[in-house]
Specification:
Residues 41-60, 118-147 form the 4Fe-4S ferredoxin-type domain. This protein has 249 residues and is α+β, with helices and mostly antiparallel strands. The strands form four sheets. Strands 8-1-10-9 form a four-stranded mixed beta sheet. It has a two-stranded antiparallel ribbon with strand order 2-3. Strand 2 and strand 3 (85-92) form a beta hairpin. The chain has helices spanning 20-32, 55-64, 132-136, 191-194, 201-204, 222-226; strands at 41-46, 75-82, 85-92, 112-114, 120-122, 143-144, 184-185, 211-215, 232-233, 245-248.
Length: 249
Amino acid sequence: MAGKELAPLPAAAAGPEADVLLRMQADLRRALEKPVAERRWVMVIDLRRCMGCHSCTIACIAENKLPPGVVYRPVIDEEIGTYPHVSRVFTPRPCMQCDSPPCVPVCPVAATFKRPDGVVAIDYDRCIGCRYCIAACPYNARTFDFGEYYTEDTPALQPYEKAPTYEYGQKRVRSGGASPVGNARKCHFCLHRLEEGMLPACVTSCVGRATYFGDANDPESLVHELIGRPNVQVLKPEAGTMPRVYYLV
């Protein structure tokens, strides 16, 4: 996909002083000029800025037309302390896109695999719905599409339930038992948007500007700068999965 023709960005997108969304957009465009194998997509989430509004969760559901029970971007809400000294912590938890993903070797049909850019993908046409990958994920980042609809108990399914999704660059309409119904599903960093020069939906919809995305192989990128800070952490480092989602605490 290197060298794909995209509309030019405004001049304000350049430089470290630019708005973070514009800067990440420019970072993304630079990454797309490189071969896929030279990109290293990572996500950084600043827990100090997350206010638990769930706008990322909703944007993800709308972008990927997710049915009931399928959530790519939950926000974990924890209450810490004892009254009157109580606080809440919100932790958005997408797929970690691990460099050593436990979900890949357990798939009996090689439907789950790691792309050259590091994103762990699912081939819906190969997936047999065994759900071994769901059990293997230490982050509970995978869910199963049981073929349900939000409006199935009403007089008629609403049109948005049948709107096509473009995950992995393929147009699909959920219908009957056709994929992705009957498949494991997960966050894929909105690959279909990336390849059109757009940031993931959870990034652009973040009200608190708490989510960052880009190519960690680019020393000029915002994410390269952020993951070098001393307050960066990953979830469950003891699992040895080497996540590509980082948290600022």
